[in-house]
Amino acid sequence: MTVDLANATERHAIDVTQAESIALFGSLAAGEGGEEAILDHIKGISRPAERAYQGIRRAILTGMLKGGDHLREEPLAQMTGTSRTPVREALRRLVAEGLATADNRHRYVTDFSYEEVVIVFDVRARLEGYAAGVAAQRITADEIETLNRLVVRIDEIGTERSNEAAQAFVDLNTEFHATIARAARSKQLLSLTAQAVALPLVMIKQFVWDQRINVVQSNAQHKDIVAALSRRNSEWATMAMTSHVLSTKPQPRDASAPGSNR
Length: 262
What we know:
Layout: H1 5-25, H2 34-42, H3 48-61, H4 73-80, H5 84-97, E1 100-103, E2 106-109, H6 114-138, H7 141-157, H8 163-183, H9 187-196, H10 215-230, H11 234-246
Antiparallel strand pairs: 1-2
Helix pairs in contact: 1-8, 1-9, 2-3, 3-4, 3-5, 4-5, 6-8, 6-9, 6-10, 6-11, 7-8, 7-10, 10-11
């Protein structure tokens, strides 16, 4: 069977971006609805292995399964409405993705330190910034128009804090970043970017309970990125995207700790 790596990595990158947007926006609470919410999330997925993967992954990304939790096959099969075999396959995928850790025959939710998360955040900022710089030289007029339409639609959300507004922001923000990633027209860069976000930002939710996405500020940064792309200014595009990603970089819970810059 032939696997389209570029398409696979792009789908993964988009999925992660969507999940982290939900967490950082803050309107959808971690673990909201428990197992019922997980089942609702995967109800349209027919293939057992994919159903198990998406369900367990969702539970991790929303904080229902926390860092260090033992991922036992039987309870996970019950949670996702599957059986142990598809759960086993799902756990292998999650270990490869970095969301789970293998210890002999046992699997645990990966527990990231704040320092490690900061490194991942910085790597992502550099890669996405570089991708934006490349895209500045390759983006089409139609793609710029698409970005402008997305910016207008995000502006319409404003400061609304409902779950519907959160989902709208998730969808639009996801498409904004995906459009720029595609505009770079590099399979290798798309693959590297996907690897950089394989440890999604929602895994740091423990450090950002009191931090929320400022949609107005975020979209003002989007406009700056679009302006740079429209001018085909690679340096500006790189700086604008890098700053955009780093502007949501979390601070540790204890802001008074040594080295904290909050």
